[in-house]
Design brief:
- This protein is of the alpha/beta class and about 600 residues long.
- Helix 8 runs antiparallel to helix 16 and helix 15 packs across helix 19.
- The protein is globular.
- The chain folds into 3 domains: about 240 residues, Aminohydrolase, N-terminal nucleophile (Ntn) domain (Glutamine Phosphoribosylpyrophosphate, subunit 1, domain 1, 4-Layer Sandwich); about 190 residues, Glucose-6-phosphate isomerase like protein, domain 1 (Rossmann fold), CATH 3.40.50.10490; about 150 residues, Rossmann fold.
- It is built from 19 helices and 27 strands.
- The strands form 5 sheets. It has an 8-stranded antiparallel β-sheet with strand order 3-2-4-1-10-9-11-15.
- The structure holds 6-O-phosphono-alpha-D-glucopyranose.
């Protein structure tokens, strides 16, 4: 899983390749590298760690040349050290690669038996050797690549540069996305339209199995059977402007505070305030015919899906199955033809979710997708796109995309409830009224930023933290724990409050902060009982509730956070804010890299 960018140009490429890498950093930031062709030979710079390390190397030893490839890595095979950083060079071939070559071991053994030696621990270097072997045997680059592609298993996107063929790049995709950009006297290759946005808006998405030959004047695309094909050229619309942090210290902080605006933007597509109706944008979907919904997602998007399961079942009385994508695809789920499968993804590129989407498509499901990046693969492959309008999310830990997903899912649940005769016109009008006020309520929640910052020192020294909630606050508890793990590296678990007594209660002592999410309402007393069980064992509680809840049960807690009271279809959107802010401030207190935490990536494009 990595980012790829290539330019066959008529002007120096190093700076522009580096800019492309900055746009692709969301795919990984373990190491990075650039290789250009300069005066008949490869010239390469690589660096471990974040891109600023590569920038320093380039400042010290600039790269020249008008054709080059560049890569930002998320390590799969081989530690994130310079020798494993891409591009890899073997004789006349340089390669960058995203994905995994699953049969690299037998291929490596075959090459080693021939006396070939390897410089890295990567699966990628095997491909470089295979292509180099073909070329050294007299093959032309395109024949060499075509021959090698047929031997590779797995999912990959890759790009090759050839020492003896200046002005040529060959790219190939199988599973992982790859895009070509059309320029004037230049052509481009990239993992996505965003990487290419400043270079070209005229792009074509390669189909699975396609490979492509780029020269300055031409782009030739071939399919998996090596037949020349045309792929539609579209205007990408991806923004070339880089996103700035403004006055905020971190992107994550900025994105947390943007939420009232972007949730309002998102809801605009889903409510008709003057008619008092909720509606899905541009959808011909007959909601009344839906008998079952299957929700699939990963990470934070999965927790948004879990909240939706509570909503859809409670309000629309339609049964919902939910799976993490990596399990769904391989557990042979039983799917009735014509069912609705709902995929949730910020990036629209997560490999497991995409594979699950394709599986559901093969099984005859109607595919709906809640997606933030409109140019993404999932947005292109779904039957119905339910967009979130969160704008680019840069912080690796998802925040604004999550609340926008919840806003869309709340509207979807209400639509389904209405279509099934489970929501009256009055109830619908009332909900629309309340949805209109969501940004205001979110601002009220954000007003607690300073109080929450002041609590960070209560959590920062902990080794373990427990989050408890019931109903839709249970997935929120898991999301809170995930946020804390991701950015502060503290072990945290989100638990259904009632389930605590079946295990996690053994962990409770005065060193384990327990964060309880419990708005007043039908489940309040039950959660408070579980909270008392924690208290009885010396546990330290941070209690998040509304004024009524705090009045009833706030006494004796280590700290309390007061949230405004809200409709059940809105309340999880509001309670997301304190858990995000708490994780953020704890991470800041611990001095971790909030926006690019270790080992993670924004978009996970390997299985
Ligand atoms: C990665 C990110 C998470 C995200 C998950 C799913 O793990 O670090 O923040 O929730 O992928 O991503 P998606 O783009 O499919 O929502």
């Amino acid at each position: 899983m990595c980012g790829i960018v290539g330019i066959v140009g008529d002007r120096p490429v190093a700076d522009r390749l580096f800019d492309g890498l900055k746009r692709l950093e969301y795919r990984g930031y373990d190491s990075a590298g650039i290789c250009t062709l300069d005066e008949g030979d490869f010239d390469r710079r690589r660096a471990e760690g974040k891109l600023n390390n590569l920038a320093a190397v380039l400042a010290d030893k600039p790269l020249h040349g008008t054709t080059g490839i560049a890569h930002t890595r998320w390590a799969t095979h081989g530690a994130p050290v310079v020798k494993n950083a891409h591009p890899h060079i073997v004789g006349p071939v340089a390669i960058i690669h995203n994905g995994i070559i699953e049969n690299f071991k037998p291929l490596r053994a075959e090459l080693e038996a021939e006396g070939r030696t390897f410089e890295s621990d990567t699966d990628t270097e095997v491909v470089a050797h295979l292509v180099a072997r073909e070329i050294e045997g007299g093959a032309e680059p395109r024949d060499a690549v075509a021959a090698v592609l047929s031997r590779l298993h797995g999912a990959f996107g890759m790009a090759f540069l050839f020492r003896d063929h200046p002005g040529l790049i060959i790219g190939a995709r199988h599973g992982s996305p790859l895009t070509v950009g059309y320029g004037e006297g230049e052509n481009y290759l990239g993992s996505d339209a965003i990487a290419l946005a400043p270079l070209s808006q005229r792009i074509a998405y390669l189909d699975d199995g396609d490979w492509v030959v780029l020269t300055r004047d031409e782009i030739e695309i071939y399919d998996k059977d090596n037949q020349r094909v045309e792929r539609e050229i579209v205007l990408s619309g991806a923004s070339a402007a880089s996103v700035e942090k403004g006055n905020y210290r971190h992107y994550m902080q900025k994105e947390i505070f943007e939420q009232p605006i972007v949730v309002a933007q998102t809801l605009q597509s889903y409510v008709r305030p003057y008619e008092g109706k909720v509606a899905l944008p541009d959808s011909d979907l007959d909601l009344s015919s839906i008998r079952r919904v299957t929700i699939v997602a990963c990470g934070t998007s999965f927790y948004a899906g879990m909240v939706a399961k509570y909503w859809i079942e409670q309000f629309a009385r339609v049964p919902v199955d939910i799976d993490v994508a990596s399990e769904f695809r391989y557990r042979e789920p039983v799917l009735e033809k014509g069912g609705l499968a709902l995929f949730i993804s910020q990036s629209g590129e997560t490999a497991d979710t995409l594979a699950a989407l394709r599986h559901a498509q093969e099984e005859g499901q109607i595919i709906a997708a809640v997606i933030n990046v409109p140019t993404s693969t999932m947005a292109r492959e779904a039957d119905i796109v339910l967009p979130t309008h969160a704008g680019p999310e840069i912080g690796v830990a998802s925040t604004k995309a999550f609340t926008c997903q919840l806003a869309v899912l709340a509207a979807f649940s209400a639509n389904l409830a209405r279509a099934n005769g489970r929501m009256s016109e009055e109830e619908e009008a009332d909900l629309v009224d309340r949805l209109q006020k969501v940004p205001e309520i979110m601002n009220e929640a954000l007003d607690h930023d300073e109080d929450i910052a002041a609590m960070a020192h209560l959590v920062a020294p902990a080794r373990d933290v427990l989050y408890l909630g019931r109903g839709p606050d249970y997935p929120l508890a898991m999301e809170g724990a995930l946020k804390l793990k991701e950015i502060s590296y503290i072990h945290a678990e989100g638990y259904a409050a009632g389930e605590m007594k079946h295990g996690p209660i053994a962990l409770i002592d005065d060193a384990v902060p327990v964060i309880v999410l419990a708005p007043s309402g039908p489940l309040f007393e039950k959660t408070v009982s579980n909270m008392e069980e924690v208290r009885a064992r010396g546990g330290k509680i941070i209690f998040v509730s509304d004024a009524e809840g705090l009045e009833k049960a706030g006494e004796g807690c280590l700290a309390t956070i007061e949230m405004p009271k809200a409709h059940p279809l809105i309340q999880p959107i509001v309670y997301a804010i304190p858990v995000q802010l708490l994780a953020y401030h704890v991470a800041v207190a611990k001095g971790t890299d909030v926006d690019q935490p270790r080992n993670l990536a924004k978009s996970v494009t390997v299985e």
